[in-house]
Amino acid sequence: MLFSGWDSLLRTLVVGILAYVTLVVFLRVSGKRTLSKLNAFDLIVTVALGSTLATVLLANDVALAEGVLAFALLIGLQFAVTWSSVRARWVRRLATGEPMMLLYDGNFLPTALRQARVTEDEIRAAVRSAGVNSMHKVRAVVLETDGSFSVVRPGENGGGSSLVGVERPQELLKTADR
């Protein structure tokens, strides 16, 4: 069917505008965290919001009020989880995971690479992107909870405080330190 009538087009136009404006208002009210760099949890919420918007726009049997309630529910749940994750480490670990060290003192950590499903070539690319020309000039490469790589250079005093809270395969660190 190519055209079902002007009524369905008008409904899509009106509901589309109202749903879009509602979603934008909800996202602005919910704060910057809702639109932050995506980790797995945020990606799920974003995809669910998009799916809800599409359903409200195109499904005649879904009322705008139901779509607005679904937007509010998804954003409210995300707010509750992120609020809880700031206050409880176990919630944070459940929702976003932990960053994982993949390279330490210029040495690849093979077990961590396999567990994270990352290749040595991807680590080398991240090091190059950070403007470092030698793997041995890198203190660590960390796979962050949003899927990005952080390249940590050795500090002047060697404190390594930016690596606090990073999952480290202990048996490999002992090997890497030799």
Q: Can you describe what's shown?
A:
The chain contains 7 helices and 4 strands, in the order H-H-H-H-E-E-H-H-E-E-H. The chain has 178 residues and is of the alpha+beta class. It has 2 domains: 6-95; 98-176, CRO Repressor (2-Layer Sandwich). Strands 2-1-3-4 form a 4-stranded antiparallel sheet. A hairpin with a 5-residue loop joins strand 3 (140-143) and strand 4. It starts with 5 loop residues before the first helix and ends with a helix.
Q: For the record, give the distance between the C-alpha atoms at the N and C termini, rounded to a whole number.
A: 70 Å
Strand arrangement within the widest β-sheet reads: 2-1-3-4
What kind of sheet is the major sheet?
A: 4 strands, antiparallel
Topology as a string of helices (H) and strands (E): HHHHEEHHEEH
Which structural class matches the secondary elements? Answer: alpha+beta
* Total of DSSP H or I helical runs spanning 4+ residues: 7
- The total number of structural domains is 2
- Proportion in helices: 55-70%
- How many beta strands in the DSSP annotation? 4
Portion in strands: 5-15%
The low-confidence runs, each spanning 5 or more residues with pLDDT under 50, are none
The overall pLDDT, averaged over residues, is 83
Radius of gyration: 23 Å
C-alpha geometry: elongated
Please describe the topology of this protein.
Blueprint (H helix, E strand, L loop, with lengths): L5 H25 L9 H19 L5 H24 L1 H8 L3 E5 L2 E2 L1 H7 L3 H10 L10 E4 L5 E4 L17 H7 L2
Antiparallel strand pairs: 1-2, 1-3, 3-4
Helix pairs in contact: 1-2, 1-3, 2-3, 3-4
